[in-house]
Amino acid sequence: MTGPLLEVDALTVDYQTESADVRAVNQVSFTVDPGEFLGIVGESGCGKSTLLFAVAQLLSPPGEIVAGKVMFHGRDMVRLGRGDLQSMRWRDYSIVMQSAMNALNPMKSIGAQFKDTLEAHDSVSKEDVGRRSIEVMELVGIDPAHLKSYPHQLSGGMRQRAMIAMALLFTPQLVIMDEPTSALDVVAQQSLMTKIKDLQRSLGFAIVFVTHDMSVVHRYSDRVLVMYAGQVAEAARTEEVFERPLHPYTRGLMSAFPSVRGPRRELIGIPGSPPDLARPPSGCLFHPRCPDVMPACLNREPELYSVGASQVRCLLYAEEARKAS
Amino acid sequence: MAVPAPNSPESTAEPLLRAVDLTKHFRLGGMFSKQVLHAVDDLSITIAEREIVALVGESGSGKSTVARLLAHIYQPTRGEIVYRGRSVRKLRSRRDLLWYRGEVAIVLQDPFSAFHPVFPISHGVMRNLALHRPELSGAERRREAERVCETVGLGPRMLDRYPYEMSGGERQRIGFAQALAVKPKLILADEPVSMLDVSIRVGVLNMMASLRDREGVSLLYITHDLASARYVADRIVVMYAGNIVEEGPTEAVLSNPKHPYTQLLLSAAAEPSEKEAEIAADSGEPPRVINPSEGCRFRWRCPYAIDECAQITPRPTPIGATQVACHVAVAEAERASNPASITR
User: Fold this and answer.
1) Which chain B residues have a beta carbon less than 8 Å from that of A188?
2) What are the average pLDDT values for consecutive 10-residue runs of chain A, which has 325 residues?
3) Which CATH number applies to B17-271+285-341?
4) What is the DSSP letter of A309?
5) Rounded distance, CA B181 to CA B125, Å?
6) Which CATH number does A6-31+45-80+212-324 carry?
7) What ipTM was reported for this prediction?
8) Do the bridges between strand A223-228 and strand A231-237 make them parallel or antiparallel, or are there none, so unpaired?
9) Contacts of residue A271 in chain B, CB cutoff 8 Å?
């Protein structure tokens, strides 16, 4: 297959509230190649989860896609009907949610939930269900005996693994993950991430991975999309971002982590909090918190400029990008 | 084996808070059930004035139970808590309890269940003020509430919002604001930054450090993140399955961790600058603490476990500046200091 697996083009999502429409995702475009690991980073309220929901066509009112396309398998998912989407879900793409405890049915055993999923999307025999269930449990490294277990009987790490096992029932080409490790302890988190990466390498599916943890992104992703206030602030290959972060916000995110080994130094983080999207600031949305703010930032909205192979939404690079083109 | 002193040698002065052999068991199941969950076992901890102590461990290690015991929310099954020379167990009257709760405040872990859903945020903060600082007038209370809101980086507008209107990070900071309102001497902060965004996290950590430096507040900082513990804490206490496995001055513990569990935690701590580092093969499964038998509770996950580990529960033993509860590490340290007495 040539070309990207998933192509999101100028996707825009509004939440309609009584007082105003809130633009949670604003003209976001990105592509995911087959087998690629795309990390989407940003703080809470930056629209990253809304973006995932919009891509997966899981938005419910008051959220609504008002513009843009989501091309997957050559079809625009935004225009697809319920039935078409239903047949694509789990088979072609699947989703692993942040909290497995809430995503799994507490009243059913893990095996029964696997069976439901398999039967809903395929006509499978009882033997096939059993065989496939055991296969995916072994893939994620849980004893298949736990197919009989209920979600509450599993530890947090195992529940997340079970969710991932479920997402892999049909070997989809795309797995969307919304902070699957954020509720876990460091040790469990590392072991789960290593597992996800191993599975991705061996099965070759693409991952869109939402997180606020820069270190996870750095270790595992191929490309990074930094989001701020519903917009793409920076998009680049992972090494590029970490070697030469362009956007002041990206730099802030990267310097916000204390280190366990290096020298102990004071960190600054990013002062202030993300903007209220019902009343966004003028000009660059990041200007009230930006350490490198210029007078122009207050009234001129930056575009997404291309700098080398990266893209960045910051006026610091407007000149550079203009010269290059 | 020498019986370890409950306090580290340098703290000869009476610490702010001292807990000795703190134990909390929960009975599980029905009336005739014999299942007992050992959340905390024989834990001794001290917190000095102007000190940030980090209590590090994974979920299920009992660290939140320790916070609740110290906050006098749970009654210990066994053991004693002494706060400024007074036994917390003996605090019974409303006045004494109010005094203790004014001195020792707790910031809860889950900001989603910590607030009353039908009242605006100001309700909790103002109520705290009315209870603990009755000398303030209504207008002063409001001003004070706005001040603590600003201390945690929220605008005064926030006070009129309802919990459901706020993000997790905002709620977490309100939790801190609520605790700060009573001007406590000791804040028990149960994973105060685990649900916060990275950009705000550093702000809260810095705020904790400045509370210590400027206002002389002590903090028990409960976390599973070693990096942030290192960033703010003077001392680190590592817990596993209800026991302390290692404790000591922050740098002493982290530069040379002696307990295998501390080593595991340190190896799992992601460094933003490292690419797919070598990670110890460990599933991170939580320990079994229901009716635990004698012996080290880490032995099932421990790569160095010896026979002794299954028979005798290791007690914290001084090795250099730190205390370590591990037979193997203690034996190794003894061998290093006294090569003639090798018995194996």
Assistant:
1) 58, 283-285
2) 83 85 89 93 83 87 88 86 86 83 85 90 85 88 86 81 88 89 77 86 91 84 92 92 91 82 78 80 90 90 89 89 79
3) 3.40.50.300
4) T
5) 7
6) 3.40.50.300
7) 0.73
8) antiparallel
9) 203
